[in-house]
Write a structure and sequence with these properties.
This protein is an all-alpha fold. The protein is built from seven helices and no strands.
């Protein structure tokens, strides 16, 4: 099984159906979990990739009142694929996924056109992606992209952010 090659081919992600919903994401995640329990790694990877594509769509256009759930779906999907990458001995892909998730959240927090609910959800979930990036650095050492994102998340004392 060449899980690393399968993971590397995961991007660019598949286009998101315009009718995708949070329920679709949940269904895909259940299927991925079942596939993992049966040790069907490629099937699980396929479902995880589909779930990420759905999560990207619903998080960028969340239904009113479901912003937090949709952002959580985005984060969970990225973290799950990063874990699969880690298991496939592809720490670079894992870092890329973690960086994408964290950068997306940082962008929403800074976007003046984002709704307050989306900004708050991004802020809440950025703690998870930040912690995942720190764990990645602890396991694999510093990488330029990861370091830049961590510094962007928490400016050094004495620096100005405006």
């Amino acid at each position: 099984m060449d899980l690393q090659a399968s993971i590397s081919s995961a991007l660019p992600w598949a286009p998101v159906p315009t009718s995708a919903t949070l329920a679709d994401w949940e269904r895909l995640m259940r299927r991925a979990g079942a596939a993992l329990q049966m040790q069907q790694w490629r099937m699980a990877l396929g479902y995880q990739r589909q779930a990420l594509a759905v999560a990207l769509g619903i998080a960028h256009h969340p239904p009113a009142g479901r912003e937090d759930d949709c952002v959580a779906a985005l984060v969970v999907s990225h973290l799950n694929l990063a874990d699969l990458s880690q298991e496939a001995a592809a720490p670079g892909e894992s870092a890329r996924l973690l960086c994408h998730a964290h950068a997306t959240l940082l962008a929403w927090m800074a976007d003046p056109t984002a709704t307050p609910a989306l900004q708050q959800a991004a802020w809440r979930h950025s703690r998870e992606t930040h912690a995942a990036l720190l764990r990645h650095v602890a396991q694999h050492g510093p990488q330029a992209d990861v370091t830049r994102l961590l510094q962007a998340s928490h400016p050094q004392p004495g620096t100005r952010t405006h």
